[in-house]
Amino acid sequence: MLSVVIVVCTIIVTGASLDPTCFPGCKNTKSWSSCIQHEPNRPSYNRPHPEGICLSCTAQLQRQSVLDIKNSSQPTTACLPNNNRVAIRGFSFGKLSVQKLRPPQQSEVRDLAFIECGITDLEQGLWTRFPQLRSLQLDFNNLTHVKRSWFGDEFQTMTFHFLSLSHNFISSMDSKCFQNLTSLVTLLLDNNSLQSVQPSWFYNLKWLRKLSLKSNSIKIIPQHTFNSLSLLVDLDLSSNVLTYLLRETVEGLHRLRILSLGGNRLLSLNKLDMNWQLGYRLFSAQRIAVRVNEALFCITESPEMAQFYHVQMQHDNHTQAAQPSVELKSQCTFLQQRTKSQTKYSLPLILISVNNTESDKHAGNITHLCQHAWENVPAVKVALPGRTQTLHIVPVAVDKSCKPQIVAIVLSDVNSSQLQGSNYNRGIEEMKNVTCVINTWEKTHLHVFTAPMSSTPDGTVCEQQTETVFNSPYSTLCRGNKAFDH
Ligand SMILES: *[C@@H]1O[C@H](CO)[C@@H](O)[C@H](O)[C@H]1NC(C)=O
Ligand SMILES: *[C@@H]1O[C@H](CO)[C@@H](O)[C@H](O)[C@H]1NC(C)=O
Ligand SMILES: *[C@@H]1O[C@H](CO)[C@@H](O)[C@H](O)[C@H]1NC(C)=O
Ligand SMILES: *[C@@H]1O[C@H](CO)[C@@H](O)[C@H](O)[C@H]1NC(C)=O
Ligand SMILES: *[C@@H]1O[C@H](CO)[C@@H](O)[C@H](O)[C@H]1NC(C)=O
Ligand SMILES: *[C@@H]1O[C@H](CO)[C@@H](O)[C@H](O)[C@H]1NC(C)=O
Ligand SMILES: *[C@@H]1O[C@H](CO)[C@@H](O)[C@H](O)[C@H]1NC(C)=O
Ligand SMILES: *[C@@H]1O[C@H](CO)[C@@H](O)[C@H](O)[C@H]1NC(C)=O
Ligand SMILES: *[C@@H]1O[C@H](CO)[C@@H](O)[C@H](O)[C@H]1NC(C)=O
User: What SMART domains does the record point to (predicted)?
Assistant: First the structure.
């Protein structure tokens, strides 16, 4: 009896048959999730339920005959199924239009996704046919330029909160292109071809909480780019080619709690073979995780004593903490569980990781290493949001192939207006105790030295500086292009 019921149900589900003239070569399969697959980036608060409709089209992309509305002998029936969630995968649309979709008169679609649909453009006013729309995914399509006309006035009356344009070929966007998306909460632009970011793109996104620009080719983020995003909580800029983040860029982001940064591609400016990732969290306490090649640094604010930090470092590759595939914050959690350090340090703080192969030569001269890390020109400079802190990554020594063997992370909390002040009071310059923690494969060493405030690396950075050659006595190889040519 039970099996009969199941058979009947199956027939009904698969029998929600598709008019073959609608989307030739497509099958109505299982559920929404079979079209969407894995969505690690989508926050749980706006993840659609697994049910819904997935039209899965044959690998060989199909082309649909465009309905000529004027031809009355053609069927005028709707093509796009009327369901809360509709996803289409693998159908070739080119320019997405009402005529190609043929949505029902009263479309109930709330979550709409077109994955691998060869979409190159969107017809203006298309979304007026979807008054209930709240999320739209256009991943793995052929979009190259985001037009302002794609998201018109119709969005003003919708509670539209999720837009993903990830995995396209987007290299530019109209200014104010999202200006009507006033209720947008999540905007994903992962894995596109953006080389820079314009402040005008984010105009009017008053409610945006998550912005992801992961895996683009972004080199430069102008000052005040994210100023209009006053509610932004989560900003992902990882896997780009950034070498700095300015104080002015993070200044207005009062709600920002999660920041991911990285230059996972080579720092080609310096010919330096250095992959870096930074994961920053600021909830009740601060947590900073930095990975430079295989070395992992975890800096966690002490929950009992603010402004004091616990520190963990690792550079062997035998534990789970050192697996690059594992998320950075999980790596630090593993490491913390393994090494329960109770020592607390205050800022400024230098953490130095010495690779085993080089440790014999250099680690002996700890004083020198610390001084060197403090004074040397960093390869990466990042202003941290929420606090007046800057984090620098300094390759202290590199090997023949320009891979850092000794890396320093310098975290300081010096306020640049204080610095300017101290320059006026020459002679009574304030001194700071700098804590330097050095980790070789065998041992951890501690060295504290005093340095005048004016020598402190401050947050001011400019593009020229990032091209500066390292004046490290160990590295004569990894020079900028100019120096190399001469
Ligand atoms: C109208 O559609 C029918 C069926 O697709 C087709 O045979 C016919 O040629 C069309 N007529 C015009 C005028 O486009
Ligand atoms: C979209 O891009 C893919 C891969 O580059 C290409 O094979 C396909 O023909 C393109 N489709 C359209 C409609 O431009
Ligand atoms: C909505 O977008 C349209 C088209 O880009 C634009 O003309 C209009 O001014 C926008 N409306 C608002 C309120 O921003
Ligand atoms: C990035 O996008 C391209 C083009 O759509 C795709 O082929 C590639 O698989 C994507 N990469 C990732 C990591 O998703
Ligand atoms: C140590 O140096 C060797 C040789 O350059 C390199 O292959 C290895 O990845 C380095 N290990 C770490 C932890 O950086
Ligand atoms: C760890 O590093 C050592 C030396 O750099 C290498 O011989 C070994 O294969 C690495 N092990 C893993 C699991 O990557
Ligand atoms: C440490 O390095 C400095 C600068 O290179 C040098 O002057 C000093 O003699 C070294 N000290 C030792 C103990 O090697
Ligand atoms: C920086 O220092 C100045 C002068 O000491 C102080 O007025 C200002 O509030 C400080 N700024 C921050 C963000 O701490
Ligand atoms: C630096 O540390 C020493 C020893 O703990 C202490 O006496 C001194 O006051 C500290 N100096 C500053 C500027 O904090």
Answer: LRR_TYP
